[in-house]
Write a structure and sequence with these properties.
This protein has 5 helices and 5 strands. Strands 2-1-3-5-4 form a 5-stranded mixed β-sheet. With 164 residues, the chain is α/β, with parallel strands linked by helices.
Length: 164
């Protein structure tokens, strides 16, 4: 727990990038880092993963260099659902909702910047149960992460997830 996935050596020649956000030392805020770890250990064709941690804006230069067709940003988000539920969060609603924020900049700034050079930007939120230091990731959130991972190879549109 608490380990970080390095962005060194990430294949930037792919069409699709997952940008994970979160802190694995903060219970369910570790949803993004878990997805990054899964993707590094079991790569998916035409997808790369960048671990943004609590400062995902630090990955913008890598994404700009890659010029992908699609970026999916994955983070824990308080979307008012059952723990582990996955939703595509419409960009215009990000400002209005409380997104679990262990990050340095609000995610709407990151997403707005990505949209200036990436044709398709999707924000996927996973409802956390616990966001507190030193607690483990809950089973419900782990299942939500696994659900996203399984959808990536055939991802179209919203990946089969509801919007909120």
């Amino acid at each position: 727990m608490g380990e970080s996935v390095s962005n060194d050596g990430v294949d930037l020649s792919v069409s699709n990038i997952v940008l994970t956000v979160g802190n694995s030392m903060m219970a369910d805020d570790g949803a993004g880092p878990l997805l990054a770890k899964m993707m590094k250990e079991n790569p998916i064709a035409d997808w790369s993963v960048l671990e943004g941690g609590s400062m995902p804006e630090d990955c913008l230069h890598l994404i700009r260099k890659a010029m992908p067709k699609r970026v999916i940003v994955v983070d824990a988000a308080d979307i008012g659902e059952e723990a582990g539920e996955v939703r595509v969060i419409d960009p215009e609603t990000i400002v209005d909702m409380y997104v679990v924020s262990t990050h340095s900049l609000p995610l709407n700034f990151l997403i707005d910047e990505l949209k200036t050079f990436v044709p398709e930007v999707i924000f996927v939120g996973i409802q956390p149960a616990i966001v507190a230091f030193s607690f483990p990731l809950t089973e419900m959130v782990q299942q939500g992460v696994e659900q996203i991972y399984r959808q990536l190879p055939t991802w179209q549109g919203s990946g089969g997830f509801e919007h909120c």
